[in-house]
Specification:
The protein has two helices and no strands.
């Protein structure tokens, strides 16, 4: 599998960090439990991907 360049990794990390922050806000603002749980699962998936990038 091809490796990401340093710049690609940096941009992906920034993107994931921003997406995680946005999800935190959306989770806090949600009043529907099912939707909130889906957002939490998505946030955990993004955090896992971010951790794999180093």
């Amino acid at each position: 599998m091809p490796e990401f360049t340093d710049r690609e990794t940096e941009v992906l990390k920034e993107f994931l960090e921003e997406a995680i922050a946005n999800l935190r806000e959306e989770i806090a603002a949600s009043d529907k439990e099912e939707y909130r749980n889906m957002l939490k699962e998505r946030k955990e998936t993004l955090k896992s991907a971010l951790a794999k990038l180093g």
